[in-house]
Amino acid sequence: MAKLELLTLLYSLEALMDTENYDKAKEVVKKVIAQAEDENKKNE
Questions:
Q1: What's the structural domain count of the chain?
Q2: pLDDT for res 43
Q3: pTM assigned to the model
């Protein structure tokens, strides 16, 4: 993930939490983790 993508993701999560949209923030975190795990498996 590029620095700009990471920064965009973090700002999005911050906005979700600022609006007390914690469930959606958790959902986004879980998707990002799953994507990272998939990429890691492909590179093994």
A1: 1
A2: 87
A3: 0.80
- What gap in Å lies between CA 42 and CA 11, rounded to an integer? 28
How many whole angstroms separate alpha carbon 10 and alpha carbon 4?
10
Give 10-residue mean pLDDT values along the chain (44 residues). 92 97 97 93 88
- Angle, vertex CA 20, rays to CA 15 and CA 23, nearest 5: 95
Distance CA 13, CA 41 (A): 25
Q: Can you give the residue range of the structural domain that contains 11? A: 3-42
Type of residue numbered 17: M
In contact, 13 and 6? CB cutoff 8 Å: no
